[in-house]
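Data availability (excerpt). The following record was deposited with the supplementary files.
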Amino acid sequence: MGVLETVYMVCLVGGLIYTLVSLIFGDTISDWLGQLHVPVVEPILLVSGLTAFGGAGYLFSRFTSLSWLFVLVLSLAIGAGLAVAAYFVWVKPMSKAENSTGYSMNQLGGKLGEVNTTIPAEGLGEVLLPMISGTTYHMAASLERQTIQQGTRVVVVEVRDHVLYVTPFHNESEKEMNKHV
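Predicted structure:
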């Protein structure tokens, strides 16, 4: 076994071992390698490219009569091609698909909710807001300093010091329904 065959075998076996360890231990290693913050090069791309390089190089050097230089260039092209394909097929679509159920208090402005505990003119009540992750309850005060009864639909106008300042929400369809009743 020549030096290049050894290099190919180390890349192939190393990539397979990494894959098995990642399968067993989840994303811990990928998260650790992800801390390197190398642009465009994700750990999954690096490992898949090296594994393909090693496998192609070993197979071509062992089972063909191609020159060592041609095998090296061909193996590098196959490894790089697989890494690029993995980027466009796996990494790029997955990076766009990630969503978070977390939110910031500053993002609550403009949200519609319902008063859960009556908001006094000069005090705090509680507002129920539907969110992606479920329903959340927040302290609320009346923006216009008027009492807002429990069950009233409200809109969050601003957020200050973790308190939502709300005003009653009346849309046109609700007004029309109330006229006909």
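Summary of structural features: The longest strand covers residues 134-142.
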